[in-house]
Amino acid sequence: MTQAPRTEVEARPKADTELAESPAKQRGGMLEVASSRAAQEVQAAMVIAKRFPRDEEAAFRRIIHACRRKTLAAQAMYAYPRGTGNIVTGPSIRLAEELARDWGNVDFGLIELDQRDGESDVMAFAWDLETNTRQTKTFTIRHERHTKRGSYALTDPRDIYELTANQGARRLRSCILGIIPGDVTEAAIHECEKTLAGDTTVPIEDRIRQMLLAFEPLNVTQVMIEQRLGHRLAVTTEIELVNLRKIFLSIRDNMAEPREFFTATEAEHPASTTDALAEKFAGKAPDEKVDPATKAKADKQIDALRQKQEAAPEGSQDAQDGTSAYDPNDPTQGAAPEAKPAPKPAPKRKAKADSLPGMEAGDHGAEAH
Prior knowledge:
50% helix, 13 helices
């Protein structure tokens, strides 16, 4: 019996299945090629590292020489306040990268393993190819930005990349410092501090005091400096001292104003009793509710105090703040004071032409001295 030939419709499912499987096969083949290439690169790097081992003395000299550059020294340390008046410092990612480059035969970096559902899986690694010492840290970063007002999700690819890079830099720094000898790191930090200090043997404590004295003529106090730094002045680092020196030069040379860098926190001079009552009931405290009867009573007190000041002799205590005024309607003042002979009123001076609008002639005369 002769078999009927296959039609186009019958042959189509098999062809569709092959086409559907081909992209998956291609991706799998590309992944195998990439994995094989990465393995070959690592093997080649390890062979070269064994054939050309590092000269530790030469590597140490390169590190010290690099730390003598002021641009690197200014970025070599991080510092942030923790708790009340305490500060945490350590080598920054920039110093860690320089240590890895100058130490030699070190492979380090960040790899984003996966990105899904608003989060990324990232691996930071540092590998000493010569000693085969490896430090890795795998962590998950949620695509969120946290602020003082709350947190919100990130959708812009650039924002996600920057967030991943910033979060990964901390883990990368830890991995690099884990394979670099500790004494080499400490020597690099010490050299960076010497570079920032310059050619001086004065302790940092004395230089902080000198900086504080230099700021005094510019009306910048210790409280204002500490508020900007976020910690006590006694724990100021070399990097912070360098930044404060830049601020001082900008203000001294009239390139900027102190208020552009510092927040004024100095207490103002206490107001007189009359001014305090007037400010309290003149709407300068909107959150405070004032009873209408209390406000009317306070207005009477204010008028009585002002009349007392206008009638009092110049230089007397009553003329300065009016604190001895007596109100018979105020039960808190007790009995009325004994009557004293009223002093002769001072002759009213003629108001000057340049007096402020709304100023009485008596007020102007009382302030002439």
